[in-house]
Design goal:
- The complex is a heterotrimer.
- By secondary structure, chain A is of the alpha+beta class.
- Chain A has a single domain, classed as Orthogonal Bundle (Cytochrome-c3 Hydrogenase, chain B), CATH 1.10.645.10.
- Helix content of chain A is about 50%, strand content about 15%.
- By secondary structure, chain B is an alpha/beta fold.
- Helix content of chain B is about 35%, strand content about 15%.
- Chain B contains 7 helices and 6 strands, in the order αααβαββαβαβαβ.
- Chain B is globular.
- In chain B, about 50% of the residues are buried.
- By secondary structure, chain C is an alpha/beta fold.
- Chain C starts with 5 loop residues before the first helix and ends in a 17-residue tail after the last helix.
- Chains in contact: A-B, A-C, B-C.
- Chains A and C meet through helix 9, strand 7, strand 8, strand 9 and helix 13 of A and helix 2, strand 3 and helix 5 of C.
- The structure holds iron/sulfur cluster.
Chain lengths: ~400, ~190, ~250
């Protein structure tokens, strides 16, 4: 039945597998080559890093991506606008709701509709909730990467409370697919606001816990202080955004400086920055931002206006011709969609500007001349999600 | 892809089928002894978690969070290497670039080994069914015992998949291991 | 199957009756029903007619770059687009970085303006096969700032001090699209250019390392070009627009 011999099959498999060696070390005259990944406990996801070492020092390090490339930009060209949100949910899979918002806003800009205030309020609340769900896992995971296992269990435990709240509104723990052009799919369920307050309390105490458990820890500080320092102007020229940028002392937050369609101007909140630019600063900024997100939601919960949650949009959505770029401050950084429409049911072209892709593009620069164990703590502190890099 | 057809043909006839390594696999065991062995295997399984995409987070929630607590089922997550694992959970999108690594990893596991495919992506390509870079189902590369549908499946669904796998192991006659059909969680 | 509890049955019955009473009469279009149902004020977005800040910035750019800016476009409140020729690509970026303080490199990509030969018609069962005998291609239409060629490079730079994002576009040659790399100006352009090379086949001169970034090394073709077919769609017909849930008050 089979037309090939077993040897041929084996040769084929071997040639394929050689392309994806798992943690092989090769020693040559110039030093040692260390391959981390694609599946490696410390790369949370399928990122592969090839590092050339001289002793314990990294000479060059090169990330190899694409193990999670799913072709979003091409697929959006063959999906109608409402179908696209199903897809783009899955780019940054920890804060899914936040992925939908910029795309919906871009489409709304082109269609010249605006969501009613109530929808904008709820959008902002869900947006911040997904930020908490996302960053919460970072706080636990970062500790794991430098050697403390317990915090990640706390993170998973307390994250459930936030996911519960998201699920009660949207019906999905993540990947809610809840945002619609012109508003939201549904209104808030009864009693949700009170429950959310409870979940926020939980999250605040989680932040305190992390602060005591991780931030003040001597080992943690030794592993992160002055490790992986990124100066502000380098960060800008590599397109770093979000907490990574603010940890380098650049005071820029899209929520405050270029806000589109969300109601951050209605609340009293603060943008946190840290002058150091090292791994510790990135952790610190994210921790403060989680607190700040709780604060923002707290204020918004008290002031949700009444009214409809859906503006008037036609049943079959055709977006008028034009181009629009909308970016929002997602948990990972700036996420934007450049939507080119030609008046069809499907977008003509969608360029997805994802935060992790730019954040990670600094790795060859930053991983130069660091020690091998620092690779892990630097990568963890840069915080990336594979789907967000590879798209 | 180069040689894909030969490769798939090869999978159909590769050597793991019907290879009798000892008394247990050749089926010459007394029934009661088989049962005893199966029972002990069933509740002492190391799972290698191959988290690839979004589903990995739900798998993480099932394995690492106190709310779902997989250890009560007799499953120990986080082995040091696939060589210690009894079953593999492939959760998430397998891309053509990743596929060889998945295959390689599965080959490193010692027999008897089982595979749970978690999520629509690993089952059939899921939302990326028409993508140019996604493998449409991990079962094109390795044999799958249990499919857990959903995008993403809830952690409970994964736990049910594990329970079904345990049932399968319990009723297993080693010699017939590869002849059954995959179980689908409903 | 398990028994359906009594109260759920009642609720379903009530919902059905409710839907029946609200049903539109046959001469009413569904959209009108929606209008009648949600008798609430729809907020009209106030679109500013002009955008002074963007115009100011555009004037600065025109002053500095003069003739090299071919066209420009301002969408009030949404952004500023300029188009330069690909020969001036790097100079433009340098100018914007030095003079307008655009230190933040946002992203870079390419748009393929050729209409896709496949599947624009979503109502049909199957993607349309490219017609072999008609040699006449569909007319290309460009977006803001117009264009001349099939591939258009687009890059967004952001100036934090001016709080303004600027899109730069440049036309590329159809047959061998190539342009100078932006890496000396913005090191972050590296990966974006690799991605553009892989997805569109645009060559970036002076780029140190133009290997594939996502796809396996032996992948053929440039997937984001419009004439790259999605093979799975050829095998399995596209179901067309299907409503999974019926709209309220509508018979499924
Ligand atoms: S099945 Fe859904 S949730 Fe799971 S990896 Fe695929 S897209 Fe993500």
């Amino acid at each position: 039945m089979s037309t090939t011999t077993e040897n041929e099959q084996l040769a084929y498999i071997a040639s394929q597998a050689a392309d994806a060696r798992v943690n092989v070390e090769v020693e040559t005259d110039e030093g040692m080559t260390l391959n981390l990944g694609p599946q490696h406990p410390a790369t949370h996801g399928t990122l592969r890093i090839i590092a050339k070492l001289d002793g314990e020092k990294v000479v060059t390090a090169e990330p190899i991506m694409g193990y999670m490339h799913r072709g979003y930009e091409k697929l959006t060209e063959v999906r109608t606008y409402p179908q696209v949100t199903t897809l783009i949910n899955r780019i940054d899979w920890l804060g899914s709701f936040a992925n939908e918002v910029p795309f919906i806003l871009a489409a709304e800009q082109l269609m010249e509709v605006e969501a009613p205030p109530r929808a904008q309020w709820i959008r902002t609340i869900l947006f911040e909730l997904s930020r908490i769900a996302n960053v919460c896992l970072f706080l636990g995971d970062m500790a794991v990467q430098v050697g403390a296992t317990t915090p990640v269990f706390y993170a998973f435990r307390d994250r459930e409370f936030v996911l519960n709240q998201i699920e009660r509104v949207t019906g999905g723990r993540f990947h809610p697919n809840f945002d619609r052009i012109g508003g939201l799919k549904d209104d808030l369920p009864k009693g949700w606001i009170e429950e959310t307050r409870g979940a926020l309390e939980r999250m605040k105490s989680f932040c305190d816990e992390m602060e005591e458990l991780v931030l003040g820890n001597e080992i943690f500080q030794a592993r992160t202080r002055n490790i992986g320092v990124i100066p502000g102007d380098v960060a800008l020229s590599y397109g770093l955004s979000g907490a990574n940028l603010r940890a380098s002392g650049v005071d820029w937050d899209i929520r405050r400086d270029a806000n589109v369609g969300l109601v951050y101007d209605q609340v009293d909140w603060k943008v946190w920055t840290h002058p150091d630019g090292d791994s510790f600063a990135r952790f610190w900024v994210r921790l403060q931002e989680t607190r700040e997100a709780c604060n923002i939601i707290d204020q918004l919960l008290g002031s949700i206006p009444s009214g409809p949650i859906m503006a008037k949009v036609p049943r079959i959505i055709k977006v008028p011709a034009g181009e629009a770029y909308v970016a929002t401050e997602n948990p990972l950084g700036e996420m934007g969609y450049y939507v080119v429409s030609k008046g069809d049911l499907t977008p003509f072209r969608v360029k997805i500007r994802s935060a992790s892709f730019s954040n990670m593009s600094i790795t060859p620069w930053i991983l130069k001349d660091v020690f091998v164990p620092d690779i892990i703590s630097i990568l963890a502190s840069l915080y990336f999600i594979l789907g967000d890099i590879d798209r | 892809m180069r040689g894909e057809k030969e490769y798939l043909n090869g999978l159909k006839s590769s050597s793991y089928k019907g290879k009798h390594m000892g008394l247990v696999e050749s089926g010459k065991m007394p029934k009661s002894l088989t049962k005893l062995l199966n029972m002990s295997r069933r509740y002492s399984m190391w799972v290698y978690q191959w988290g690839l995409a979004c589903c990995a987070i739900e798998m993480g929630a099932a394995f690492a969070s106190p709310r779902y607590d997989v250890m009560r089922l007799g499953v120990i997550p986080l082995p040091a290497s696939p060589r210690q694992a009894d079953f593999l959970v492939v959760s998430g999108t397998v891309t053509d670039k990743m596929a060889p690594a998945v295959r390689r990893l599965w080959e490193q596991m010692p027999d008897p080994k089982y595979v749970i495919s978690m999520g629509s992506c690993a089952n059939c390509g899921g939302p990326y069914w028409d993508s140019y870079s996604v493998t449409k189902g991990v079962d094109q590369i390795i044999p799958v015992d249990v499919y857990v549908p959903g995008c993403p499946p809830r952690p409970e669904a994964l736990l049910e998949g594990i329970v079904l796998l345990q049932e399968r192991i319990m009723n297993e006659d080693m010699a017939e291991r590869w002849r059954g059909d995959p179980i689908v969680v409903e | 199957m398990a028994e359906i509890p009594e109260h759920l049955l009642k609720r379903a019955q009530a919902a059905r009756e409710n839907a029946e009473t609200n049903q539109p009469t046959s001469d009413q279009a569904p959209s009108e029903t929606i209008e009648a149902d949600s008798a609430v004020a729809v907020i009209e977005e106030e679109i500013p007619e002009t955008d002074e800040r963007a115009e100011e910035i555009l004037n600065q750019i025109l002053e500095g770059l003069g003739e090299t800016v071919l066209t420009s476009h301002i969408a009030p409140g949404r952004g500023l687009w300029i188009r330069v020729s690909s020969d001036n690509w790097r100079q433009t970026a340098e100018f914007l970085k030095d003079e307008l303080d655009c230190k933040f490199f946002d992203w870079l990509s390419v748009i393929d303006w050729m209409p896709s030969p496949y599947g624009r018609e979503l109502e049909t069962e199957q993607d349309i096969e490219p017609e072999q005998d008609t040699n006449e291609p569909e007319q290309m239409e460009w977006g803001y700032t117009g264009g001349d060629t099939r591939f258009q490079l687009i890059c967004r730079l952001y100036s934090i001090s001016n709080a303004a994002g600027i899109m730069i576009k440049a036309d590329l040659d159809d047959q061998s699209p190539r342009v100078l790399s932006l890496i000396p100006v913005y090191p972050g352009a590296n990966w974006h250019e690799r991605e553009a090379r892989e997805m569109f086949g645009v060559t970036f001169d002076e780029h140190p390392d133009l290997r594939n970034i996502y796809l396996p090394g032996d992948f053929e073709g440039h997937p984001l070009r419009k004439d790259y077919p999605l093979l799975s769609r050829r095998m399995k017909p596209w179901p067309g627009i299907v409503d999974v849930e019926a709209m309220p008050g509508e018979e499924k």
